[in-house]
Design goal:
This protein is an alpha+beta fold. The chain is built from three helices and four strands; from the N terminus they run E-H-E-E-H-E-H. The longest helix is centred in the C-terminal third of the chain and has 10 residues. The protein is elongated.
Amino acid sequence: MADRVFLDLETRLTDEDVGGWDHAQDMRVAVAVTYSTETRRFHVFEEDELEFLFDQLFRADLVVGYNIRGFDFRVL
């Protein structure tokens, strides 16, 4: 079965804190949450655990999220 991983993250800083949406890469991760269809489990990652998040995302067959290319991936 293909592993579809759903991703959402929240940031430490707002767009106002970093000088606008064009600087999303500076917002820093507060928490990222994934759900894997393979394991049927949620995983919670804090900023110091991002290497484990990246491992999960790179292993996934498909990563799903709202505006992940325009925002989440930029923050990561």
